[in-house]
Write a structure and sequence with these properties.
Radius of gyration: 17 Å
Strand content: 5-15%
Structural class: mainly alpha
Shape: globular
Helix content: 55-70%
Order of helices and strands: EEHHHEHH
Number of strands: 3
Length: 154
């Protein structure tokens, strides 16, 4: 089943209950990471990258003026996704919701990718069962994202 489809009343999302539950849990974890805001966390650094990686003073000044607003927007997008993941098997997304989904799926993949050590070459090889499951979730999030992008461009 393709999760996102363009319908008469906008974008439709259909996910089985177990996928909705998994995604809701991941998005709730994303909100926790964002609200925790630990600058030493590689996932936070990936979500809120330095504007001036070679100039710590300029980077700190830029961060001082932008980090709170950027974090608030990311949290708002994630909360919108959580709202859309309510009980029905099919959700309808307006244009703002579609953008929230795109941004939140990207943020989820950035966090998971940083946790897995994903590079341009893909995830690091591993035999760790937990990492293998996380790799599958990372791929599934990519599938959801691709499904939404394809539905938006049709």
């Amino acid at each position: 089943m393709i999760p996102f489809r363009r319908g008469r009343d906008g974008m439709e999302l259909t996910l089985p209950d177990h996928e909705r539950a998994l995604l809701a849990d991941l998005v709730a974890q994303l909100v926790s990471v964002l609200e925790g805001g630990d600058p030493g966390d590689p996932a936070v650094a990936r979500l809120l990258p330095s504007a001036y990686p070679d100039d710590e003073e300029a980077a700190a000044e830029f961060r001082r003026f932008t980090a709170d607003d950027l974090t608030a927007r990311k949290v708002a997008n994630a909360r919108r996704v959580l709202d859309d993941l309510g009980p029905p098997p099919t959700s309808r997304l307006d244009e703002a919701g579609q953008q929230s989904w795109l941004r939140t799926l990207t943020d989820l993949r950035l966090v998971l990718g940083s946790r897995l050590g994903v590079t341009d070459g893909g995830p690091a090889p591993t035999d760790d069962p937990a990492a293998l499951v996380m790799n599958d979730v990372f791929d599934w999030l990519g599938y959801l994202q691709e499904s939404l992008v394809q539905a938006l461009t049709r």
